[in-house]
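Tutorial handout. Part one gives the primary structure; part two gives the three-dimensional structure as C-alpha cells.
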Amino acid sequence: MKYFIVFFITFSSLADDISHLSLAKPVKKLLQEVGDLSTLNHSMSCFDECPLRNEGKEVDPKNIKYHVKDYIFGKSCEMIKQKMFALSPQELWRGTSKFDLIYRQDRQELFDKTQKESPIEGDIIFLNLQLKFDLLLGFGKKIPVAFRLIDFDQNKDVLSFSYLQNNQTKGMQKVSFISSYQKLDMCRVRHETKYWSGKKLRDKLYGPQHEKLMDDFYSKFSEKLLEE
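Part two.
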C-alpha cells in the first residue's frame, strides 16, 4: 500500500512553509509573491459566453485573442480520455510544460511533484514552462503558470481550465474530444484558447509560443499512447 504525505498549511504561514515542498524556483517565487493562496482566483468561468476579468473589471471582447489547433489520434475518444485521466500529472506534463504543484484550495492541501496525487475539478495546477524566445517576452528561460481546472470530468467531451488573475496572461483553454463519424477508432482533439495580457507585444508573441508548448504536450502524450 502506498502512503502519501499531504501538507496541511494555514494560509497565514503558507509563504514560510513552502520550503518543505519540492518546487521549481520560478513556481516557488510565484508562491512567495502571492503569499496568501486563498486569494487566488481564475480569470474566466466558462469559455464561450463568460467574460474575461482583470482586477475585477471585464475586458473588452474585441481585445481578446483566439487560438485553435486540432490534433488527430488513431484511437477512439473514449480511449484518449481514459488514457489522459489515467496518467499522473508528472506523466501528463513532462516536456516543455512541466508539472510542479497541485493546490486544492477548498481543503488547503498542497501536492508537489514528488507525490502521485490525481488532480480533480477545482484544483489549481502550477506548471513550469520552458520558452525558447523568452528574452522577447521579458522572462527567463523558465516561467511559472497557474490555472484552475474548471471542467475536468472523464465522462464529459469537453475539458476547460482558466488562467489565474495572478498570471501575466489571463484567459481560458478548452479541449474538445470530437469523434469521427467515418472511423470509430479516430478522435479529433480540438484545443482552443482565449487570451489577453493588456500588452500588444506579449499577446502577439503568445500565440506562436503557446502552439509550440501545445505541440510538445500532445507529442509527449502520443508517446504514452504508443506504450500500450
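Part three, for discussion. The helical segments are 14-17, 25-34, 77-86, 89-92, 134-137, 200-226. The two ends are 25 Å apart (CA to CA).
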